[in-house]
Design a protein that fits this description.
Elements (H helix, E strand, L loop, with lengths): L4 H4 L9 H30 L8 E2 L5 H5 L6 E2 L25 E10 L2 E5 L16 E4 L4 E2 L9 E5 L11 E5 L4 H6 L2 E6 L2 E7 L10
Parallel strand pairs: 1-2
Antiparallel strand pairs: 3-4, 3-8, 4-7, 5-8, 6-7, 9-10
Length: 210
């Protein structure tokens, strides 16, 4: 089992410096070539001792590159099934968001700010805007630069915030797959306007891995 986090877990189309994007893309190209050679050599060495039933590699952000390696029989792509916010910044694909969490408005400190209950579901990795949850609906909301998403409260700004009332709901996307399953017991499966099923997370099954 292998995971090339420097390719699969780093979007190559992040906003910001063009030079940084170019350097990241160059690193990923070189790294992919090196990894293909090293992985093939490792598999050859192992199979000289014992046969392998499967060889797992990759992640959501490197599916097509890893699948091109002839030694790979299985691709790991966990977070991508949800289409969370971190994967908005890849050139190779565009996920369709499939998971959200919903927070109520509990305070209106000014006419331009709506404050949500909780919301500090921040993804692992280097701290930055791409690790924060993304307000998705109503459209036009954004996090504040000073507070971001907080454990107790999350203020949001934008035109849509002006008319919000206490109790209104804001839908957000998490940045990676883990935040939802680490914090809730049940995921509700929605089709159209109907909840068609609900399934337990590992937390809901009584497990706490972290």
């Amino acid at each position: 089992m292998s995971y090339e986090g420097q390719i699969a877990g780093m979007g190559d189309n992040q906003p910001g410096s063009p030079l940084k994007r170019a350097a990241l893309r160059a690193m990923q190209r070189l790294s992919a070539r090196e990894l293909a050679e090293r992985r093939a050599a490792a598999i050859t060495a192992i199979e000289a001792i014992t046969p392998l039933e499967f060889v797992n590699g990759g992640g959501t952000g490197s599916i097509e590159q890893t699948a091109a390696e002839h030694v790979i029989t299985e691709i790991g792509a966990g977070s991508g099934l949800y289409g969370p916010g971190l994967f908005d910044f890849y050139r190779r694909f565009k996920p369709r968001p499939a998971a959200f969490f919903v927070l109520p408005v509990v305070r209106r400190p000014t006419s331009k700010i709506a404050t949500l209950l909780g919301g500090g579901w921040v993804a692992s990795g280097p701290i930055g805007p791409d690790r924060m949850p993304t307000p998705t609906w109503p459209r036009g909301l954004r996090l504040t630069g000073l507070e971001g998403a907080g454990e107790v409260q999350t203020p949001v700004l934008g035109q849509a915030a002006h008319g919000m009332r206490l109790g209104d709901q804001v839908w957000l996307r998490h940045a990676k797959a883990g935040e939802l399953c680490e914090r809730v017991n049940v995921l509700h499966l929605v089709s159209g306007h109907q909840i068609v099923d609900q399934v337990p997370t590992y937390r809901g099954e009584g497990h706490a891995f972290l």
